[in-house]
Amino acid sequence: MRRSFLFLFLSFLLSLGVVAGEIRERLALLKDISAIEELSSEYYQEKYLVRITQPVDHKHPEAGSFTQRVVVCHVGLDRPTVVVTEGYGGGYALSPRYREELSGLLNANIVFAEHRYFLESTPEPLNWDYLTAENSAYDLHHIVATLRGLYTGQWISTGISKGGQTTLIYRAFFPDDVAFSVPYVAPLCRGVEDGRHEGFLRKVGTRAERRKIEAFQTEILKRKTSLLPRLEAFCREKELTFGLPIAEILDYCVLEYSFAFWQWGTPVSAIPPLESEDEQLFKHLIDISGPDYFAENQPNGSFFVQAARELGYYGYDVRPFRKYLTIQSAQGYLAKLMLPPGAGAIGFDPALYEKIHHFLKENDPKIIYIYGEIDPWSAAHVPVFKKKKNSHFFFQARGSHRARISNMPEKIKAKILKQLDEWLDKSSPSNEGRL
Fold first, then answer.
1. Is the torsion defined by CA of 117, 119, 122, 128 positive or negative?
2. Are residues 60 and 175 located together in one domain of the fold?
3. How far apart are CA 38 and CA 47, in angstroms?
4. Distance of alpha carbon 366 from alpha carbon 257, whole angstroms
5. Distances in Å between the alpha carbon of 134 and those of 101, 128, 151, 259, 385?
6. Residue 3 has pLDDT above 80, yes or no
7. In the chain, N or C: fewer CB atoms in 10 Å?
8. SS3 for 153?
9. 393 near 199, Cβ under 8 Å?
10. 393 backbone dihedrals φ, ψ, rounded to 5°
């Protein structure tokens, strides 16, 4: 009986094209993979953390190298493979419960790439000159080229938010590396203070919602004298330090509030009554737009270097609150507050925006764009160019930065799944029953 079970189990594994542990052996044979660590997973047959050696500067490999953290989740050698172009650190992908949306929908492998200069994919010594979009695109190209011989099905790229930006960057530099792409809530900003987000916030939602949000912001500023000691105590407890006086930090928390509020789809019912005690108002402010975002020792300094250099960002409209603000203007706040020590002065170069814009305008790559209607980042969504049969835009009604295929209305979800199905290689028997 036990022999029969073992025989059936081995037959099942062989039917998948691989026996247990063989993926690790095959990974070990690939060039530039310096380490392999087995990970547990609730969804995948095998899962590994691999470290791939990358040049710090792909155009000048003599500048040195670093190892990039990559997670490989295995379904089948001839299944589609989703390359996740993470824009930040990738520690969460190590969890046994990690499963990227497209991989689940398509029964696909995952190649998850932590972005350079984040967490364990940070070069030493730290030279900010090499943190460029072009280098990040070459990182992904190298990863896909390394693993393509192992996974022979179609390759798909996807990412969320800054990861969605990275998907677009990768596609613009290497348009033929993948069959199609699904960037989620991905902005395409054209300046370090793009200018479109402020106007978006003046129109998003209903007038009653906007008035309630602005009234809360104003009330916080009116109570600045009594709230500053709370903010100071909070920052001491969290060991947060800043490059500007604490009164100005409170201003920026208030200015950030409306953007963060809509970004994450907070219901206006969560705003406490204006007559509430200081403690309740302060707690709500911290929950939505805490001071850690502006702290010198916060963990996303690498992102702000990229935003200042070429990814772009958003500005603040100070006009409704000018009477109560300590600052005179918010212009240039990213450079004043958020660049990490040693980054130096960074000027914005629009060349990346122009490259991606030109690529999407002059070509018709297969891309599905997912956006949330009330997400302020959608103010800088990719332009909808006419006569592009392969560009498909889906804006989730009242959707936030959490907009996904899985939480779309059923009719839209079905339309997206149908398009994904059409783009997959229907001639391949391995794709039968994929959706």
1. positive
2. yes
3. 6
4. 36
5. 26, 14, 25, 29, 24
6. no
7. N
8. coil
9. no
10. -105, 135
Residues 327 and 248 in one domain: yes
Distance CA 44, CA 249 (A): 45
Q: How many domains does the chain have?
A: 2
* pTM of the model as a whole: 0.93
Query: In one letter, which amino acid is 303?
Result: F
With CA atoms as reference, report the closest residue to 302 among 117, 169, 120: 117
pLDDT tens-digit profile of 245-258? 999 999 999 999 99
Tell me the three state secondary structure of residue 433.
coil
pLDDT (average), residues 116-121:
98
Same domain, 151 and 89: yes
Contacts of residue 270, Cβ cutoff 8 Å, sequence gap at least 6: 284
Nearest to 84 by CA among 2, 3, 170: 170
- Strand ranges in 245-403 using DSSP code E only, listed in sequence order: 367-372, 391-396
Instruction: Clarify whether residues 270 and 410 are in a common domain.
Output: no
Residue 395 clears pLDDT 50, i.e. is over it: yes
Please state, in angstroms and rounded to a whole number, the distance separating the CA atoms of residues 404 and 103. 13
CB proximity list for 276: less than 8 A, separation 6 or greater: none
Are 48 and 156 members of one domain? yes
Tell me the per-residue pLDDT of 6-23, one tens digit each, with 9 for 90 and over.
Answer: 434 443 444 344 555 789
DSSP code at position 84? E
In a domain, 14, yes or no: no
Residue 382 DSSP code: P
Mention every residue, 6+ apart, whose C-beta is less than 8 A from residue 106. Answer: 80, 82, 156, 420, 424, 434, 435
- Please report, as a single letter, which amino acid is at residue 239: E
How many angstroms separate the CA atoms of 286 and 253, rounded? 8
Flag whether 218 is in a domain.
Answer: yes
Closest CA to 147 of 10, 33, 225: 33
